[in-house]
Amino acid sequence: MAWALKLPLADEVIESGLVQDFDASLSGIGQELGAGAYSMSDVLALPIFKQEESSLPPDNENKILPFQYVLCAATSPAVKLHDETLTYLNQGQSYEIRMLDNRKLGELPEINGKLVKSIFRVVFHDRRLQYTEHQQLEGWRWNRPGDRILDIDIPMSVGIIDPRANPNQLNTVEFLWDPAKRTSVFIQVHCISTEFTMRKHGGEKGVPFRVQIDTFKENENGEYTEHLHSASCQIKVFKVSLGPLVAFGSFVLTFLS
């Protein structure tokens, strides 16, 4: 289920410009971030990643899952009440994802004092594009030599250990972290949603992506292959206008469970 808490910002922020040519400019979308436009101290909670299937035993299915991932970005108001939330991101901008330990006392004691590994991926939301993901990513690589789809902003991140980005997997990054310590990773998405539209004549809305997070613990051989938890959320990514950075949507805080 999902419910939303709306902060006092104008609803017209996103309505006027989504059908314009995002490749050219986003100057008509969003509103400029001025002083005091958004105070983190006013935020009670932030968008929580949709929980995916877990490998935990069936008797734990109705319990609180061991981890939560919170994307610190505004969700779009232009979605129906019971539909999944959609978050708009600026291309190349760093966005914080907070890694939260939700375990109760005595839960998963085998990871106490140990590290876990989380793998981040940007994937297609639409099933049609999922079937051709390899070809789509290879085409993107050909058109953008030397670029990556997903990066970690290491200087801004907190608590991550041994961050890695495989040069052969442009849409994937990974790192180790200690659930007992504060961990926030800042990610940058460099592809834009309109790059994968079939017809490019201007005015495309762009295809949605998903940020997928999978977390693993060590096995007896010291390899991080035992699945603990997965979650994801839906995003769209657009070019930043030549003016100041814009914040897409109004600040609606959505809680998913």
UniProtKB/TrEMBL annotation:
<dbReference type="GO" id="GO:0000978">
    <property type="term" value="F:RNA polymerase II cis-regulatory region sequence-specific DNA binding"/>
</dbReference>
<keyword id="KW-0238">DNA-binding</keyword>
<protein>
    <submittedName>
        <fullName>Transcription factor CP2</fullName>
    </submittedName>
</protein>
<dbReference type="InterPro" id="IPR007604">
    <property type="entry name" value="CP2"/>
</dbReference>
<dbReference type="GO" id="GO:0005634">
    <property type="term" value="C:nucleus"/>
</dbReference>
<dbReference type="GO" id="GO:0001228">
    <property type="term" value="F:DNA-binding transcription activator activity, RNA polymerase II-specific"/>
</dbReference>
<dbReference type="Pfam" id="PF04516">
    <property type="entry name" value="CP2"/>
</dbReference>
<feature type="domain" description="Grh/CP2 DB">
    <location>
        <begin position="61"/>
        <end position="257"/>
    </location>
</feature>
<dbReference type="InterPro" id="IPR040167">
    <property type="entry name" value="TF_CP2-like"/>
</dbReference>
<keyword id="KW-0539">Nucleus</keyword>
